[in-house]
Amino acid sequence: MTKRITRRTILTLGAAAAAAIPTGTAWAGRRVQPAVAKAGPQGDERPARLAELIQGSGVPGMSVAVIQDGSLAWTHALGVADVTSGRPVTEHSVFQAASLTKPLCAYVTLALCEQGRMSLDVPIRDYAPAESLSNSARANQITARLILSHSSGLPAFRPARGRLTPKTTPGTAFSYSGAGYELLQEAVEQVTGEALEDYAARTVFVPLGMRESGLVWRPEYEVSAAAGHDWDGSIVRDVSRPARANAAGSLHTTPSDFARLMIEMISSGRTSALGLDYVYKRMATSPQIRLANGLAWGLGWGLGLDPAGGCFWHFGDSRGYMCHAIAFPARRSGVVVFSNGRRGLRLAEKTADMLLEDPQSRASQSQVFKWIYDVFYEGQLRL
């Protein structure tokens, strides 16, 4: 049975790793200025259609990337990065990616497993610091596989004191756990002898050309980062510049950079010496635990299952930011949408639906969002 999670828990998880942005005067009650559609190729209606979607959405700015034929095919940005200055969103604007950090952590973990430095099915306590886990029998059952598929039984976030201990029997139910990914980060850092931010930069960001991505705050983000905006449109203030990686949600990136990770996942070959081979990519996108009819969770990714090839996906919710990424391996296509407003998930759904070319992809995505709204948020996500 799928374990439900309260909206309060999700908001707390998202806010834990929010990016820091210089703040200004709140703009509660003011409307977002009409987004100006930048001219695309002659006959390309997408910029104008995106401008129509964002207008009236309550979201200040948005940036998108489209994957076609296994390559980055199109990017576009519109709206403002912060409502106080009116600074525009560009295709190089960096967003807090929130839980889209988790598929990145999964990629790093699977690469270590392929290299024989870790195993998906060895107890995680064999790799993690001894003081991280309780000595309970349930804790001994936790593995990297169960953490990556959110079936470890660990709580949503770590307690302020004491060791982590599963709330339910590991492997029996889906239960979204940021604490599990933080434990996995500790294991990865023990195995590699490097901070996650450094190891990911060297083995993932550089080989894949993710030049604008970071798990910690970079000086250039002071200029390039989009500010997060709350439900009332005011710039989010209680945020922090992460000085240390958090595998559950500290990634800062652009849609085009994140699309490069997705392109790597749908490619059939090894794209770099440090990348995954096809077997491990297929493992990442193979069902590990059921969510609902036609939906499952893999190793780091949510999965949509259908005879046409299915999809892998993830979304991110951090206070002031909403993002969504979905890819269809059989069609070698996908969409990434980042926004800097709390109302951005509904906008991301409409945007991706417009950018996806075939009806089957749109139908698969519709099923994903139905689960997100009805189960993950328990029908409580505000419009």
How would you characterize this protein structure?
The protein has 383 residues and is of the alpha+beta class. Helices cover 31% and strands 14% of the residues. It has eleven helices and ten strands. It has helices at 7-15, 46-54, 101-114, 144-148, 178-192, 196-208, 221-224, 255-266, 278-284, 344-355, 359-376; strands at 61-68, 71-79, 95-96, 252-253, 289-292, 295-297, 302-304, 311-318, 321-328, 333-339. The protein has an eight-stranded antiparallel sheet with strand order 2-1-10-9-8-7-6-5. Strands 3-4 form a two-stranded antiparallel ribbon. β9 and β10 (333-339) form a beta hairpin. α2 (46-54) packs antiparallel against α10 (344-355) and α3 (101-114) runs parallel beside α5. The longest helix has 18 residues, at 359-376. The protein is globular and about 60 Å long.
